[in-house]
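<goal> How does this chain fold?
<body> The protein record starts here
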Amino acid sequence: MPWRETCAMDERMRFIVEHQRGEVGMAELCRGAGISRKTGYKWLERYQAEGVVGLEERSRAPHQRPGQIAEMVVERLLAKRAAHPTWGPRKLVARLQEEDPTTIWPAASTAGALLSRAGLTVRRRRRARATPSGGGPLGVCLEANAVWTADFKGQFPTTDGQLCYPLTIADAASRYLVRCQGLPAIDGERVRPLFEAALREYGLPLAIRTDNGPPFASVGLAGLTPLAVWLIELGIRLDRGRPGHPQDNGRHERMHRTLKAETANPPAATARAQQAAFDHFRQEYHTIRPHEALGQRPPATLYTPSPRPFPSRIRPPEYPMADHVKRVRPHGAIRWRGAEIYLAVPLAGRPVGVTERGDDRWEVTFGSLILGTLDERSHRIVPEKPLRWVPTND
């Protein structure tokens, strides 16, 4: 015949009754019930304390959850996200830890799950990444003012219909945003005063990386523009990415994405209001917003001004090692052995050095920039590509 089906409560009650009769010892009673002595004593204690109710099955869930996040912590995390909608969980947790180091804050992964549960995350579409094709991308920058990066954020209209062209200048190592200024147009006459103000305030970097568009570069010899010539005269090297490769200034482009999200989505009502938004962003970007590449520290904690001050007088370049020094004529050419060799109009009035390199070839330099090689036979200059500089002791 089949085994008799019983429930756990019946078996436990039968165990208690047998124990109360006292006819069988505890060890034999537990063996007969198929349980350990520890389990037998457990059910006896529960029955003595609670009666029949104590024999019911209890939930196996822990009475306390050590990993459970306090409601206060969750509320503060969500409030911080509301104040900074574009910040991810790493930045939010880093900022909260800085503000209140005594509170145990969740890991970034847990914070991300809490934001997702609250409906505050937007999954980004994965972007296809271009395969690296050789030199061009900005290398590792470890010291402040070794390289500044500069670019225009794509133009957009404010609510009143006026176009805004944000010019941004940043330190590559610390990500410190030196300038963020909305302009009505892109031209050197407007850009140079902003560069000069930044250089007077923070000193001179060793190099400035830009793209190949105006007013930073042109299609002429060495891509020279009036702004580029002025920077070279200040002793700043030009550092340009490859044409058509904005990723060569990737960290600057990433900053632009954050700038757009926090200041121009949607745009302000007027140019003045838009500039106020830029100024607020710049202040927060410097002192509050944690930066992942900086160990979740804001740029202002790492940036220091350059020890190279803006000169009281910009002196023309000198060429002690050159064989000849030629002054560029107003139309951008130099006179060379009865012929005119065209260089670039932005060099008008400036001296250039000409040094013999043999085989009727002469190297032409402006400051420490090698413009190209002068070929006496063709009476033309062959430009250097990419830019090449005379080695210095700097």
Remarks:
- Residues 271-287 form the longest helix (17 residues).
